[in-house]
Design a protein that fits this description.
heterodimer; A: alpha+beta; Cytochrome p450; 14 helices; B: 68 residues; alpha+beta; two-stranded antiparallel ribbon; two-stranded antiparallel sheet; 24% helix; 21% strand; binds protoporphyrin IX containing FE; binds iron/sulfur cluster
């Protein structure tokens, strides 16, 4: 028997709650919806009904199912903020493979997966360690009271992805401003589309020189590939630049805040540094900074958990709720750096699972380890409740993190 | 237990090589899975099961020995 989807639709939740009650937990109103891990909800701006997934098992199922697509035109948002995807599809740059389905997604993604393997990331470790140490030195120069977000969290991943791509870090003001506008869901969509065009134009402008005088970097490799147009090269470069810095930056910012607010866990990590690999996974799970919801559109009617998801309907997976699902994780609301957090969905699931995850892991492992080593007395320079938080950004995190030592 | 890998489905996440490095690697070309040992024994079978479970694309499956 398939449940009818017409009954009492007035009671449906309006969108995915995003107002936070605490600094580190998903919204309580969102968690309250987990009693039905797959449920109907209304989308913005036109109240059309769609789906919300908050359970771990169903999230895995939906995200791995080829009937749920990202290459469609997204015109609705799961919150009353214009989601990153909304209306963006008409502005989606060619090559921006997140918004592609197979076989295009496969063709484009495989152009770059070779440089993000575990092996390649291991080779990068010494260089990442140098970058981390430089930023620690910069923090020390700035002195106690420095903003860890601006001095450390944002520059480390930005410098790393710039070097990999061959994008001049000197241009960071431009690409950090445009990326943050693209991710700022509180900003009017027109302005964000403009920023998308600007960032695309910026990367596009680098391509001819990369072809004429190739360097030892990814943009040069892509520019030399006859199978890719300049537009595609720019789109791939843009998705990596966007994905590569704000995400890890917010894991450093919010992650440091979480450690400082869990002194027992921090003390444990300091005395048992071998916990770091697992600690990074647990921070990824606990904080789930990519909190805006993973949206898909149903290609053809699909039966999931005894319900029919109709072609054309929207489905949003709430990864921060999924990562606190008590059916999958014991004591999900506890930050426990010694636990096994395997199976968390901070990097997504399915064919779009994060391409930079092994890079992000190395950056965090080295970054957190050296940060704790360099500042044995690290503490907040302001009361925790005065740390500015960005709940309306596509990626959740701190706006600044003043620290003392 | 025997492991089968479908390289057409593989999305090069590296999760298998991270979880069970003694069983999986990624190729240099586009990071797709390379199975180093498709018939794990003893303690490695646990790692193999975890890798299969964590694979985001469904590229890895455990094949029933008796079907060979
Ligand atoms: C801790 C840091 C990071 C987090 C939490 C994160 C999170 C995610 C998530 C959740 C997705 C899947 C979204 C979906 O399926 O709807 C994703 C995809 C992606 N990420 Fe990351 N990411 C991180 C770091 C990075 C880095 C360092 C890079 C670049 C080198 C990157 C590049 C990408 C790209 C290109 C995609 C799209 C993949 C595709 O569509 O096939 N990310 N990321
Ligand atoms: S875990 Fe799956 S998708 Fe990832 S590299 Fe291994 S086989 Fe490929």
């Amino acid at each position: 028997m398939i449940a009818s989807e017409t009954a009492s639709s007035e009671d449906l939740p309006h969108g995915m709650p995003y107002h936070r009650d605490t600094r580190h937990d998903p919204p309580a109103a969102l968690m309250a919806l987990q009693d039905q891990p797959l449920r109907r909800m209304r989308y913005y701006p036109d109240d059309v009904e769609g789906w919300l997934v908050t359970g771990h098992a169903l999230a895995r199922q939906v995200l791995a199912d080829p009937r749920f697509l990202t290459g469609e035109r997204f015109v609705r948002s799961p919150t009353d903020l214009p989601h990153f995807f909304v209306s963006s599809s008409e502005h989606v740059p060619p090559g921006f493979f997140f918004f592609k389905d197979p076989p295009e997604h496969t063709r484009l993604r495989r152009k770059v997966t070779g440089v993000f393997t575990l092996k390649r990331m291991r080779d990068l470790e010494p260089r990442i360690a140098d970058i981390v140490d430089d930023r620690i030195a910069a923090m020390k120069d700035a002195g106690s009271g420095a903003d860890l977000f601006q001095e450390f969290a944002l520059p480390v991943p930005s410098l790393v992805i710039c070097e990999m791509l061959g994008v001049p870090y000197a241009d960071r003001d431009h690409f950090q401003r445009t990326s943050s506008a693209i991710f700022d869901q509180a900003m009017p969509i027109e302005q964000r589309n403009e920023a998308t065009g600007e960032l695309f134009g910026y990367v596009h402008g680098l391509v001819p020189a990369k072809r004429a005088r190739p360097g030892d970097d990814l943009l040069s490799t892509l520019a030399a590939d006859d199978d890719l147009t300049d537009d595609e090269v720019a789109g791939i470069g843009m998705i990596l630049l966007l994905g590569g810095h704000e995400t890890t930056a917010h894991m450093f910012g919010l992650g440091t805040l979480a450690l400082l607010e869990h002194p027992d866990q921090l003390a444990r990590l300091r005395s048992e540094p071998e916990l770091m690999t697992g600690a990074v996974e647990e921070l990824l799970r606990f904080l789930t900074v990519a909190h805006a919801g993973m949206m898909r559109i149903v290609k053809e009617d699909a039966e999931i958990d005894g319900r029919i998801l109709r072609a054309g309907e929207y489905v949003t997976v709430a990864p921060h709720a999924v990562n606190r699902d008590p059916a999958y994780f014991d004591r999900p609301d506890e930050l426990d750096l010694g636990r096994n957090s395997q199976g968390h969905m901070a990097f997504g699931h399915g064919i779009h699972q994060c391409i930079g995850q092994q890079l992000a892991r190395v950056e965090m492992r080295i970054g957190f380890a050296r940060l704790l080593e360099a500042f044995p007395g690290l503490r907040l320079a302001v009361p925790a409740d005065q740390v500015p938080l960005r709940t309306d950004m596509f990626i959740y995190g701190v706006g600044a993190l003043p620290v003392a030592w | 237990m025997r492991i089968a890998a479908d390289r057409e489905r593989c999305t090069s996440s590296g999760m298998c090589a991270l979880t069970a490095p003694e069983l999986f690697d990624q190729d240099d070309e586009d990071g797709r899975v390379v199975v180093l040992d498709d018939a794990p024994l003893g303690a490695d079978t646990g790692d193999a099961a975890a890798a299969i479970e964590l694979c985001p694309s469904g590229a890895l499956t455990a094949v029933d020995e008796h079907q060979d």
